[in-house]
Amino acid sequence: MNNDPQKVSSDLFHEFKRELGLFDSTMLVIGSMIGSGIFIVSADIARTVGSSGILLLVWIVTGIITLIGALCYGELAAMMPKAGGQYVYLREAYNPLTGFLYGWTLFLVIQTGTIAAVAVAFAKFTAVLIPWFGTKNIIFSLFGLNISGGQILAICSVLFLTFVNIRGVKHGKRVQNIFTIAKVAAISGLILLGIFVGSNISAVNANFSNIWKGEWIHIASGKIDWVESLSGFSIIIAVGVASVGSLFASVAWENITFTAGEVKNPRRNIPLSLLFGTVTVTIIYLLANVAYLLVLPIHGIPDGGSAAMQGIQFAADDRVATAVAQIIFGHPAAVIMALLIMVSTFGCNNGLILAGARVYYAMAKDNLFFKSTGKLNNNGVPAKALVYQAVWTSLLCLSGTYSQLLDYVIFAVLLFYILTIMGVFILRKRNPEAERPYKTFAFPFLPALYILLAVAICIILLIYKPIYTWPGLIIVLLGIPVYYIWGRYQKRK
């Protein structure tokens, strides 16, 4: 028995604290998924598919893929309720190298790049209220880089949320719950207003007279290059290409698995939170697009003189939700949408910052990341991992390369999703007697359907969107030499 009070206290301080209940976990899933994507990406989807029916189909397919993925992850989370989540599943299903490649890509681009992009989006919409924070307002130059007020605010928001989460998961979850509830309420309000107030007969007739007549507007150098009529197999191709935006708006639900060490009764609550969270977001996204189609015509003119003339396809800066708000509210729309997106992006980043650090903690425990990130502070959180994440994210904000990096990694994100769900099959065969409090619904059909759909989208992207695929693969593969170099370093050490 240990009679040293200081030693006992130290041991207690260095354990994860199970502070996240089912409601908190669900709020983390919803809050991490909803950022700024739903307000913007429908414009690019509309340019790719050109019809209301196919646009809604893209979101339905995305919702189905997301829900099936979440159900599959639920089995893995219930089987292995450990900090690090998806990293742990890949390590156990395959080998440490596969787990490392996921963690490497997550730290280098996926998590930090997403945080940087969301932080800059927060700054851009803050600039609607306070122009000093505009991304074009250059404050000074640093090592040849022009630093704007928007970049400064983005970095400050990342550092502030990092500080909040260093104080403990209890503080992080409070911020998450408040901002997630606020943005769900605000988006729901916009949807209801769009459906019952902003709906107009001209948009309805334009969008729903022939819902499957699609066309793909090909853009080159910012201008319309040519227009392709869609029919038969070309519709499938267009749906696959258009899914880049909807899938990116729907990722990050897996972040709850990273925090398994802090979830109460994780074998039950993580699968349930994945189900409740992804279903909620899918419904919100689908209804938001219905509202868009009731208010704005899907077809538009690039240089149209009004939101209605520009339509969904050519909404100013792709801000479809803002265009809808202009129809409903008039001049105050810009301010209203700025406030809504500020709330949405701030809450989204809190969830991403909270969860991401747990992966680097798990990697450090396997000697695959800096050793200091594998320790918890007195508040029971991996403070050093949070700090490293904030530093790299801030550098991405300064470099301005985060948006390009995120374009590159959507393909890699899909690949890791596919590998993880294939892991359900592998672990079922390898460890049939392992405890599985929750089993994937309709196994093996739903996981096989997910793999089939996701692989099909990956093949389409390889052929038709190579700029979104090969760079992402290169980033992942660069992790292989890093893994072996790191291993040699650890052995020498």
List the SSEs and their pairings.
Elements: H1 5-13, H2 22-33, H3 42-49, H4 52-79, H5 86-93, H6 96-129, E1 138-142, E2 145-148, H7 149-166, H8 169-198, H9 201-208, E3 214-220, E4 223-230, H10 233-249, H11 255-258, H12 266-295, H13 307-310, H14 320-329, H15 333-365, H16 383-399, H17 402-430, H18 445-464, H19 470-477, H20 479-492
Antiparallel strand pairs: 1-2, 3-4
Helix pairs in contact: 2-8, 2-12, 2-15, 3-4, 3-10, 4-10, 4-12, 4-17, 4-18, 5-6, 5-17, 6-7, 6-15, 6-16, 6-17, 7-8, 7-15, 7-16, 8-12, 8-14, 8-15, 10-18, 14-15, 15-16, 17-18, 17-19
Descriptors for this entry?
493 residues; mainly alpha; Amino acid/polyamine transporter I; 20 helices; 5% strand
Description:
By secondary structure, the chain is mostly helical. It has a single domain, classed as Amino acid/polyamine transporter I. Helices cover 69% and strands 5% of the residues. The protein has 20 helices and 4 strands. Strand 3 and strand 4 form a beta hairpin. The relative contact order is 0.19.
Name the CATH class: Mainly Alpha
Percentage of residues in DSSP E strands? under 5%
Write down the CATH topology.
Amino acid/polyamine transporter I
Order of helices and strands: HHHHHHEEHHHEEHHHHHHHHHHH
Instruction: Classify the secondary structure makeup into a structural class.
Output: mainly alpha
Shape: globular
- Percentage of residues in helical conformation: 55-70%
Question: What's the CATH H-level homologous superfamily?
Answer: Amino acid/polyamine transporter I
